[in-house]
Design goal:
The complex is a heterodimer of chains A (314) and B (262). Chain A is built from eleven helices and no strands. By secondary structure, chain A is mainly α.
């Protein structure tokens, strides 16, 4: 028996194919544009970075990291700068992270939604965009003069903490908002209190997003120069702050908090403003160090977010 | 005193002239008076938006989570005559007595063990032996024990949809609730998983009282002892399931269950 095949068609197949081809051109055009934009940005960054590395590579020695700055460019290193940056970031971390997470949780979970919380919300978002020099001025007036904290590591850490706080708050709130409502309801339905829901669920499911915000905030803080200069960080420093840990009990020592200091970007700024070319090589090497540190931190943040997302999928 | 009805059933809880208003002012429930019988399954049916889920969620004060919602009327829980809608009664106390299973399986992103343990943990239970025992009992009660007993530390997300829903039932069961609320518990599941859950609900009523919202009228007919038909926030009719499905007293109910409407 002959198999019958359909001979009917309601549409012009060739016309459809032509139409699809035309529509797909738009896809291609957009993809090409996006590719161009991303490529030009990435290439710019890579060229800048390579330029720094090529200029600075003679300085990538252990001595560069273990020497104090010096009037002789060849002997100058970034020991005081990287130690200063680390200690300042330590203060920033311990101030901004607990405060920022607590504020984010409060605003998202506890605060009543009314005009007061609206104003706070707008202000927090605005703070993230305030130029950092303004934070420097605020810190100079408040921490240095009013509180008498001096031009110390503590002052710098607090200043950068202010800068980082809105980033932590915003990322905490976003991470919390990403938790589906039915998971919350499940927790409440078995009789959990608000605090139990926050502690056992909200914090545990959002820590990936929160940590990402924290690391990105730290990566921003490490490169900040203006506010640290404003509060009066030293530009030439040939000593280290007292060590935070000691071999004798109580093992912790807080004298370093009130010590003078410098940080990596200031060291770089200082070298770049000198006329001798040899110092410019030092500056380039310092710049490369800052970029590598920032890239490492951001990379770690991305890896972290990826791991958490793999584990918790709604 | 034990409250009883004309069929000589024991009343576990009852709503009296319950009105409910959402924060935007819409009235979702209008003077709903409905008993929930002890060791029986009471099913709520009706078209989308008729207020049956709103009614169910009043029983564990879920609406309290969202500001601006307002109850008016009472839900009395026996034997202690507690009006669970009374603002003086803590919603957490209510939720510790009346547990809930949701439409979409919503296990926590934790292990199978921790999911079931959670209700006990918020009640302060930390003795590992007690927890192990209760968790085994709850998982057996939810007919899930045999499938998961060798992988209690696995993430709950690795279970199938039907298993996840049974896990949620085990979680709700572990704390020995007096009433269990089911909000369309099988609407996200395949037919085999649905049959499992239905059998499970029937087996649970020896221990507790069940109030279930369902879109599926055959489901109500299959598993429930009593059925209530709601429309536009009002309770139209409430009777034994057999009566509702064979000779309903109201024309609207008949139209709905025969498919002429809805």
């Amino acid at each position: 028996m002959e198999i019958k095949k359909s001979k009917k068609t309601a549409v012009d197949v060739n016309a459809i194919r032509k139409l699809i081809k035309k529509h797909k051109k738009n896809d291609l055009a957009f993809a090409a544009l996006g590719m161009f934009v991303i490529a030009s940005l990435t290439i710019t960054l890579i060229i800048l970075f390579l330029d720094l590395v090529l200029d600075g590579y003679p300085k990538f020695t252990l001595d560069f990291f273990s020497n104090f700055p010096s009037r002789r460019a060849a002997r100058a290193g970034i020991l005081s700068a990287w130690v200063g940056s680390s200690l300042v970031l330590l203060v920033t971390f311990f101030v901004a992270v607990p405060l920022g997470i607590a504020a984010g949780i409060y605003l998202e979970e506890y605060a009543k939604k009314n005009w007061v919380s609206d104003i706070i919300e707008i202000n927090v978002s605005n703070l993230a965009g305030v130029p950092s020099i303004i934070y420097g001025l605020l810190a100079l007036g408040l921490f240095v003069y009013s509180f008498g904290l001096g031009q110390s590591i503590l002052t710098a850490g607090l200043t950068l903490a202010l800068l980082m706080l809105p980033i932590v708050i915003v990322s905490t709130r976003e991470a919390i908002r990403a938790i589906p409502i039915h998971i919350r309801e499940a927790a409440y339905a078995v009789g959990a209190t608000k605090w139990q829901v926050v502690l056992h669920h909200v914090v545990q499911y959002s820590y990936g997003g929160i940590l990402t915000g924290v690391i990105i905030g730290m990566a921003r803080a490490i490169g900040e120069t203006a506010p640290v200069i404003t509060i009066g960080a030293l530009t030439f420093i040939a000593f280290l702050p007292p060590s935070p840990v000691s071999v004798d009990p109580p093992f912790l020592n807080f004298e370093w908090l009130s010590s003078g200091f410098t940080v990596l970007p200031i060291q770089m700024f200082n070298w770049i403003s000198r006329p001798q070319h040899a110092f410019h090589i030092n500056a380039a090497a310092t710049g490369a160090v800052i970029i590598i540190l920032t890239a490492l931190m951001n990379g770690f943040a991305i890896k972290l977010r990826y791991n958490v997302r793999k584990k918790i999928k709604w | 005193m034990v409250a009883k009805n004309k069929h000589n059933e024991i009343i576990k809880a009852e709503s009296r002239d319950l009105n409910f208003f959402y924060a935007d002012g819409t009235q979702a429930l209008k003077n709903v008076s409905l008993p929930v019988y002890e060791n029986k399954i009471t099913a709520l049916i009706g078209p989308s938006g008729c207020g049956k889920s709103t009614f169910l969620r009043s029983f564990n004060r879920m609406h309290d989570l969202y500001p601006g919602n307002r109850y008016d009327g009472q839900i009395i829980l026996y034997p202690d005559n507690t009006n669970i809608l009374d603002p003086k009664v803590d919603p957490i106390e209510v939720r510790m007595r009346i547990s809930m299973v949701f439409q979409k399986p919503n296990p926590f992103p934790k292990s199978i063990y921790e999911n079931v343990a959670y209700g006990l943990r918020v009640r302060g239970e930390s003795n590992a032996r007690v927890l192990d025992e209760k968790i085994e009992e709850a998982l057996k009660g939810a007919s899930l024990w045999d499938e998961v007993k060798d992988r209690l530390q696995d993430l709950a997300f690795n279970l199938s949809g039907g298993q996840q829903q049974r896990l949620c039932i085990a979680r709700a069961l572990a704390t020995d609730p007096e009433i269990m609320l089911f909000d369309e518990p099988t609407s996200a599941l395949d037919p085999i998983a649905t049959v499992n859950i239905e059998e499970l609900m029937s087996s649970l009523k020896d221990k507790l009282s069940i109030l279930i919202v369902t879109h599926n009228m055959q489901q109500a007919a299959r598993i429930s002892d009593y059925t209530a038909y709601m429309y536009l926030g009002e309770l139209v009719e409430h009777d034994k399931t057999g009566t509702i499905f064979t000779k309903p007293s109201k024309k609207e109910t008949e139209d709905y269950i025969t498919g002429k409407f809805g």
